[in-house]
Structures are given as C-alpha cells and as structure tokens.
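hiii, so i know i said id send this last week but things got crazy w the move. better late than never?? heres the sequnce for the chain we talked about at the cafe, plus the structure i predicted for it. fair warning i was half asleep when i ran it
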Amino acid sequence: MACPCQHGELCATKQWLSGLLAMAYWASLSMGTMYQNLYRSRDEIREWQQRDPIQYFVNYLTSEKALSQEDVRKEEAAAYAAVEEAYQFGLGSPDPDPETLLEGVYA
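okay and structure toks below
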C-alpha cells in the first residue's frame, strides 16, 4: 500500500511507535519512582525529560506530517493499554518454581 503522505520509510515508523512508547512507559514505571531522586536532582530529571528522544521523534514525525496528533494519541493509548495488560497478566500469574531460577543462565 502506498504511503498517503509520500514519506516512504518515515511512515513505516507508525508500526513500531506504539511498541517504543510501551517500552518507555514500562521503563518509567519500573525505574521512575524507585530510583528517581537517589542520584539526580529534580531539575536534572526535568531537564532530561525535556530532551526525551521519543518525544523528539514524535515531534519530528508530526512536523513532517507523517503522524497527526490524533495518531499520536491513539498510539499512546495503545501503548498504555498493552503495558497495563502485561502488568495485570504478571500480577495474575503464579510465581515460578524456585528450582527453575537458574534455567537458561550460562556463566
């Protein structure tokens, strides 16, 4: 199918943007509140949040008309839903057998 906005490869990024947002959201959940203020000041955290490469990329795609704001909202909602679904699955899953702890570890 041809790209309606004639950006070629740029529009292919729509397919994995949701996954990228989900990974970033998951990382922020797992690291955000636990380690956020141990080593960084709030000002430094805020400064790096403003340099967020994902937000920079989204801004680039919207400025190039490869994504609309509505597309971004839909992808963010899909990412949050995917992370929430995975989180709920993890909470509802039984704990693994402790004897399997070292399976797949090669050191």
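btw The chain has a mean pLDDT of 75. thought thatd interest u
miss u guys!!
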